[in-house]
Amino acid sequence: MGKRNTKSKQLVLDVLRSEPCALCHEELQNRLHETVDRATIYRILNSFCEDGIVHRIVSDEGKQYFALCKSCDGKNHNHFHFRCMKCKKVKCMTEEISVNLPKDYHIAEVNAFVSGYCPNCKEKEK
After folding, report:
1. What is the pLDDT of residues 31-90, one digit of tens each?
2. Does 84 show up as a binding residue in the annotation?
3. Which residues bind Zn(2+) (predicted)?
4. Strand pairing class (90-96; 79-84)
5. Which of 30, 49, 92, 97, CA to CA, is 20 to 30 A from 74?
């Protein structure tokens, strides 16, 4: 039996699809104008992660962000995530991470996070 698509799930998915950057829970809740309660958003995001629809990104500060799986296959998220120190936006980078491990080691998950300044904020500084 498949999972039921509810109005709340569709609303969360629509917001994630409309954003070029990953969103934290609070940003999602603000964009939904509190039409979906906080606990429901958490449940939906966890379900989406389990189903490979979105992936969870944990920042260097421990904050969780969620991005729609566009360039990944829903299971392997072996790419860098970039957080702008000025505008705070988190974006998935498209280039894959390559790690040379010793023989018999196998990567199960990668959480690579880089902080700096996005092109837009860097331009504003000039």
Report:
1. 998 789 999 999 999 999 888 888 888 887 888 999 887 655 555 566 788 889 899 888
2. yes
3. 84, 87, 118, 121
4. antiparallel
5. 30
Please tell me the total count of domains within the chain. 1
SS3 call for 38: helix
Looking at residue 14, its pLDDT comes to 94
**55 or 29: which leads in pLDDT:** 29
Residue 112 belongs to a domain? yes
Beta bridge partners of 68: 54
> What pLDDT is stored for residue 104 in this prediction?
93
In a domain, 2, yes or no: no
Which 3 state secondary structure label does DSSP give 23? strand
- How would you class 110 by CB atoms within 10 Å of its CB: exposed for 0-12, middle for 13-18, buried for 19 or more? middle
Q: Which two tokens stand for residue 88?
A: 């705070």
Asked whether residue 50 is domain-assigned, the answer is yes
> 36-53 as b/e, with b when 16 or more CB fall inside 10 Å?
beeebbeebbeebbeeeb
Q: What is the CATH number of the domain that holds 86?
A: 1.10.10.10
49 labelled as ligand-binding? Answer: no
